[in-house]
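DM from R.C. (forwarded with permission)

"hey, sorry to bug you on a friday — could you get me a structure for this? deadline for the figure draft is monday and I only need the backbone to look sensible"
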Amino acid sequence: MRILVTGATGYIGKRLIPLLIEQGHTVICAVRGKLRTENRYKDEENVFAVEADFLDPETLKNIPKDIDAAYYLIHSMSNSIDKFHQMENDCAMNFKHYIETTDAKQVIYLSGITNDTKLSKHLLSRKNVENTLDSQKYALTVFKAGIIVGSGSSSFEIIRDLVEKLPVMVAPKWLNTKTQPIGIRDVLSFLTRGLGDERLFNQSYDIYGPEILTYKQMLLRFAKIRKLKRYILTIPVMTPKLSSYWLYFVTSTSYKLARTLVNSMGVEIIGKKSNINELLEIEPMNYDEAVAFAFEKIKQNSIVSSWKDSFVSSRTKNRPSAKYINVPKYGCFKDIKERKVLDEQRTYAKICAIGGENGWYYGTFLWKIRGYMDKLFGGSGLRRGRTNKDTIQAGDALDFWRVLLADDKEKRLLLFAEMKLPGEAWLEFRVAKGKVYQRAVFRPRGLAGRLYWYSVLPFHGFIFNGMINKLANA
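My reply, with the result:
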């Protein structure tokens, strides 16, 4: 089958595509930046990337008409606290109108459980999208998942941050809200086994794990698995806004995402029973099994995808795209350095391992201070880290940078800053002809940008010198 996957660079999409390839399908990835996906699947014959922005109907013409089915995995809740519901509705409407002109017989939509009468804005938006996608031209299959537990998922990483950083938690009362978590492996099983199954056409199913737990119970059981002693005190006086800041400063989540999650966490997410497990022969794992499975992936350094690599983890208005790969030459401040190297491949390998747990090789405490400052002003900080400590790909989040290009053939790594800045910044590394080249470029915005550059210039002098010296001596 020829399958269209939207949200192909997101947490679910990046895990779903390899499974579809294994099953022999041809996959068309609808993405806003084609280069990011083409590099990831360059060795796969049956994967094609097309540039399409579902907020811009004109771009949808790039999607081929001869598709058999489509997955709708688009999610906009972190782009705007107040307007994400309108963005989601517009995306769904544009998607529907175009897919109705194709040969697609089925659309599979992954949503959240929405059976409470008092829905949060996030869950209400999910329900409205389901209504919008309903069509007479194709069959709609909806899977409504509970909290997804898996390495790299936003809920897993938030719980992990809280448990591993806070021995004692003074937490909001919504920690007593009940939910029904489900493992990521089971979610993917539902998505793949539901493809082409006519019994599921024009049907909606809640999918969830076998246990009903409060968020507090999830935290304590997570701590038990990690062999950590943790104490939690819930208080009723913490407002949603304070709760959002609490999540934002303690975990790696953005404030926008924290605010949306807090609004949803006050609503019980309990699935409605159905025969979907029997139909697809799936027996979902319990919470402890899902957490243990996630940590197996982490120990093996084989995390397929992380929510941090999605652009929703960025706290800057700049959305890195293909145009940023061409680093500007004029109107910019630059810091350019080069050193001789003895082993080009080893130097490039060290470049590709930069950031995250590996650090930035020189002046680590200053990088951390810059990260704290960025976090304080609403930026990413250093808490996103990196998904894989050894390998890196275009589109990955790297602390407060975004990877624009990771070219193994040319031995070139290009990063774009997602920190809060009065301008735009690039950091480039390249190894060629027995030398390592390091280039920092800053395009200032107004007087503030120029003052910023000159204020950090003294630090650049020894930070960048120290960093390239460490790389040259790899």
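R.C.: lifesaver. The radius of gyration is 23 Å.
me: no worries. The mean pLDDT is 84.
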